[in-house]
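2.7 Reproducibility. Because tokenized structures are sensitive to small changes in the input, we list the exact sequence used for Histidine ammonia-lyase, including any N-terminal residues retained from the expression construct. No trimming or masking was applied before prediction.
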Amino acid sequence: MAPRIFVDGNQLTIEQVVAIARDFAQLELTEEARQNIVRSRQMVETMVEQQRVVYGITTGFGKFSDVVIPAEEVSQLQENLIMSHACGLGQPYPVEVVRAMMALRVNALAKGYSGIRPQTVQLLIDMCNLGVHPMIPQQGSLGASGDLAPLAHMVLVMLGKGEAEYKGTRMAGAAALHAAGLAPIQLQAKEGLALINGTQAMTALLCLSLYDARRLMENAEVIAGMTMEALRGIRDAFDPQLHAVRPHPGQQESARKMLLLLEGSERITSQGQLRVQDPYSLRCIPQVHGATRDALEYVWTAVTRECNSVTDNPVLFSDTGDVISGGNFHGQPMALAADFLAIAMAELANISERRTERLVNPQLSGLPGFLTEKGGLHSGFMITQYVAASIVSENKVLCHPASVDSIPSSANQEDHVSMGTTAARKLRTIVDNVRKVLAIEYLAAAQAIDFGEGRLGRGTAQAYQRIRQEIPRLLEDREMHPDLAKAEQLLQNEWLWTM
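Resulting structure tokens (single pass, no recycling of outputs):
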């Protein structure tokens, strides 16, 4: 039975978002959240009755914010908003991204500042729990005024429109609702705006990428440790005294982890035993990996905060009766976070590829060229390094920050946008690419270890044994793609070493 996660708008974690997205954990509102939703809804109904002029409730949107809408057309206004804004293009998001978006939007609405009806929120919850997944195109969000186009496609299905995936089959939105035993809803005042004014597309992408990045961070260090052993690296570079005098937390943690996972190794050396210094790709593992650790920590905190934020406009404060129009929908905090993490993760691949080059290059490693005993007849790991080089080069292109761009929209009313969703989409690709590059180093390091002798460290031994359970030593040339795919799958799904 899938676990149940209670949401109140304040305590949703990245791990819980991932559980809903990938493990089909079930959503449920807390009673307090329901009461908060009811209170904010009462505010909207009062404003409509009093015919107050309030943005998005009794007015048009964007440049049309000065157009007052008659009370009898308020419901049509909300439906028109969804239909007109559902104009995304490109391939649809994977189901896990869609589910994360739905969960995050529910959590934002649960805070009780949006003015939506409880039954409308419940329909979104039921769709998520029963597996009605709207088809949401990936392109079309500026990341300010929220992720308008992606979220509009999500809401279309709630209206019995658009398309959805249900039990693996793509079908009309109305058919998907019917198959799941659900009925479409007619939006009332403020509800369309409440559902699409938010950063949930970019935040969903960030949650999933962050979760994967954190595992890659830990696995990268185990793989680096294997390379250290294969190349008889020098342990002194990880001495705590060295890192105490440059006290970046990530650097210190990486150095500590390297010493732990190499504990008991007979393969690594001491300063002066074979050489005085290692090359930077070995010696500077704590400094490079540690900087990525610090970036991950910052972005994790920022995204967790965003998961539990109000990103609507306007925002309704039931305690004071105030309705404030502002810019909480602007994705700049997430745009900068996504670009920062993209750069930080790409560096894990950059330094990994350099270690792979040292493993396969006989002039640098002292090992058989390209890690094969019959060089010439066999190419061994020659082209795997080419592939790693190609992927890190691709990442360098993708790392150009999206957040430095802005294009005015809505007749210049919305004259600065974040491009946060573009940044988050690029980040997802970069994280996938980093996994591929690390998979290549993982395989190469295991192969290089096979040419040496002596006990491996406590952590590296686990990682070596795990890959050898799946992939045998390369004794003669064979198709490398299946091996690399298996290694990549291990990095996606497993922690290579646990203390």
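The chain has two domains: 4-198, 209-493.
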